[in-house]
Amino acid sequence: MTVLSSSSASLYFSNPTLPTSTHLHSQRRRLYLSSRGTQTTIDTPSLKPSLRSKPQVIVVGAGLAGLAAATKLNSENIPFLLVEASDSVGGRVRTDVVDSFLLDRGFQIFITAYPEARKLLDYQSLNLQKFYSGARVYFDGEFHNVADPWRHFSDSIGALTNPIGTILDKLLIALTRLRASSLSDEEILSSNEVSTIELLRKTGFSNSIIDRFYRPFFGGIFFDRELETTSRLFDFIFKCLALGDNTLPANGIASIPNQLAAKLPPDSIKLNSKVASIDFGTSNPVTLTLKNGEILSSQNGVILAVEEPEAQKLLAGKSADKPVQKKPARSTVCLYFSTDPSGLPDPDPVLYLNGSGKGIVNNMFCPTNVAPSYGPPGKALVSVSLIGSFNDLSGWFGESKVGSWSHLRTYRVRFAQPNQSPPTGLMKGPRVGPQVYVCGDYQNWATFDGALVSGRRAVEALLEDNRVPARLL
Ligand SMILES: Cc1cc2nc3c(=O)[nH]c(=O)nc-3n(C[C@H](O)[C@H](O)[C@H](O)COP(=O)(O)OP(=O)(O)OC[C@H]3O[C@@H](n4cnc5c(N)ncnc54)[C@H](O)[C@@H]3O)c2cc1C
């Protein structure tokens, strides 16, 4: 993949004869139009030689949704341009290198069973490193295991009588696993919904397992310790956890978007290019004005793959169907520390949860225990996630260990995820105006997977709208 900075991309737009690979790509001049499972190939009627250098579709935002949209366009041989405000692809899924440590921008795990991700990603090249399937819960001054009985049978038997829930709770976990795994994704995502906390109570879980395990574990996944998030998302994640592994790519979570970007045509990504406004309806084609004043237009449509608040801003007053954010977003803070391996509690690739109900730390783990490549040789990395600010791990592991950690960096992610408490529509339609489509995690289920699906669906809608009636073929 070659990416363009704002200035080189302007050149691309102002010089239609420039022989870039994108031009070769666009010379196919064909739009593949899918209709109800069948695919038809036609010459695009609106193409004129003078427009040859122009992409037929512009995707705004190179997070997972935008990259999935670009991947789908690419697979359909439709020339496109992916325009991104920041200096790299990935959106919320990025990794920084600091003092030879890999710092993901917030605690993120990749679940291998995500169905859309399985179709799009090459897992082998991601070199996925596994977490222990379970967690170690801090409660009453001690650590207690919660283990997946299918993968760590003896650990789970040993955990049956610990204070992280009753024996009945542990049987209910197994039943919930079976129930969620037996449902199709479609059934889960369109099922009757309640909040996760309501589902857990209705299922019969005790307050002790809810407070000591579910609040920190699913609260950490949803950034929502109150567990107001829809039961649909709970079931979807539970199913994926049951069917797949929790992992980190050896080269950081950003390897996921980087892998998608690497398969796109050279010069199809334009970085450092923030879209300031979009104009559609009165003008044809849709036009985008960048912050630097540059104007882009596309022949067949624009897909807005920006995060929900930004989509609202760009579409304000322009679309009756614009995304409406009714609920406050979910936020998180992630702190990283470096230490010597002797400063770690243990060498296990395990997630620690705060089941004590006290303090502000929700969870912590040592990325270098999961993937040694997250740190330089002889050094260890500690990741601490919280709601609030940092202070109370000394009580967990002792001042001598925690005091040895050197703070590396703190990520405060104000918009970590959209709020997905009921009522949710996890399969929202992508059309917001003539030739304008939206995608992003807020359109579907707010995960890597939901973002990828939303990107594909936006392109499918665009293809459907550009479909030429059969009688013209
Ligand atoms: C800390 C954290 C941990 C997470 N952990 C997990 C996890 O473990 N598992 C999981 O499945 N999900 C996790 N998620 C959620 C997941 O990362 C998101 O659901 C998903 O990445 C969203 O992708 P997206 O493409 O919809 O949005 P984004 O990633 O936000 O992409 C939007 C892109 O649009 C660009 N953009 C915005 N405005 C403009 C503009 N005006 N012009 C041009 N470009 C613009 C942005 O720069 C960005 O690149 C986590 C999220 C966070 C923040």
Structure report:
It is a single chain. This protein is of the alpha/beta class and 473 residues long. It has three domains: 3-91 and 254-326 and 423-472, FAD/NAD(P)-binding domain (3-Layer(bba) Sandwich), CATH 3.50.50.60; 95-131 and 330-417, Polyamine Oxidase, Chain A, domain 2 (Alpha-Beta Complex); 148-243. Helix content is 31%, strand content 24%. The chain has 17 helices and 24 strands. Strands 1-13-5-4-17-24-23 form a seven-stranded mixed beta sheet. It has a seven-stranded mixed beta sheet with strand order 11-10-19-20-21-18-22. A hairpin with a 2-residue loop joins strand 6 and strand 7 (101-104). Helix 3 packs parallel to helix 12 (255-262) and helix 3 packs across helix 17 (448-465). The radius of gyration is 24 Å and the shape is globular. It starts with a strand and ends in an 8-residue tail after the last helix. The structure holds flavin-adenine dinucleotide. It holds the Pfam family Amino_oxidase. Residues 64-463 form the Amine oxidase domain. One of its GO terms (molecular function) is oxidoreductase activity.
